[in-house]
Amino acid sequence: SHICLSVSMCPDAFGFYGLLFAMFSIVCLGSSVWGHHMFTVGLDVKTAVFFSSVTMIIGVPTGIKVFTWLYMLLNSRVNKSDPILWWIV
């Protein structure tokens, strides 16, 4: 996060659109992946809800961080051939 802030020269680390894209992508991908696993494995409803909630607790902060980094770097005035950009991505 510190590298992305210094490279992109943005005033804040977590913007509205980074959070929005992260939540949207996690909901879409998580629903399809867990829906597939719950029906193929045959878990009961309580177990499925437990594993889904644990996955969201772990996945949401990670997704928010990653999508915020990408959004900050793509909308900054950083040269696209800069090695630090490709190291982060």
TrEMBL record:
Subcellular location: Mitochondrion inner membrane
Gene Ontology CC annotation, any one: mitochondrial inner membrane
Enzyme Commission number(s): 7.1.1.9
Top enzyme class: translocase
Pfam family, one: COX1
Membrane topology: Multi-pass membrane protein
Main location: mitochondrion
Highest taxon of the lineage: Eukaryota
Known cofactor(s): heme
Keyword Nucleus: no
Transmembrane segments: 14-35, 47-72
Pathway of action: Energy metabolism; oxidative phosphorylation
Catalytic activity: 4 Fe(II)-[cytochrome c] + O2 + 8 H(+)(in) = 4 Fe(III)-[cytochrome c] + 2 H2O + 4 H(+)(out)
GO BP annotation list: electron transport coupled proton transport; mitochondrial electron transport, cytochrome c to oxygen
Annotated GO MF terms: cytochrome-c oxidase activity; heme binding; metal ion binding
Limits of the Cytochrome oxidase subunit I profile domain: 1-89
Record keywords: Copper, Electron transport, Heme, Iron, Membrane, Metal-binding, Mitochondrion, Mitochondrion inner membrane, Respiratory chain, Transmembrane, Transmembrane helix, Transport
Family: Belongs to the heme-copper respiratory oxidase family.
Purpose: Component of the cytochrome c oxidase, the last enzyme in the mitochondrial electron transport chain which drives oxidative phosphorylation. The respiratory chain contains 3 multisubunit complexes succinate dehydrogenase (complex II, CII), ubiquinol-cytochrome c oxidoreductase (cytochrome b-c1 complex, complex III, CIII) and cytochrome c oxidase (complex IV, CIV), that cooperate to transfer electrons derived from NADH and succinate to molecular oxygen, creating an electrochemical gradient over the inner membrane that drives transmembrane transport and the ATP synthase.
Protein name: Cytochrome c oxidase subunit 1
Organism: Taenia krabbei
Gene behind the chain: COI
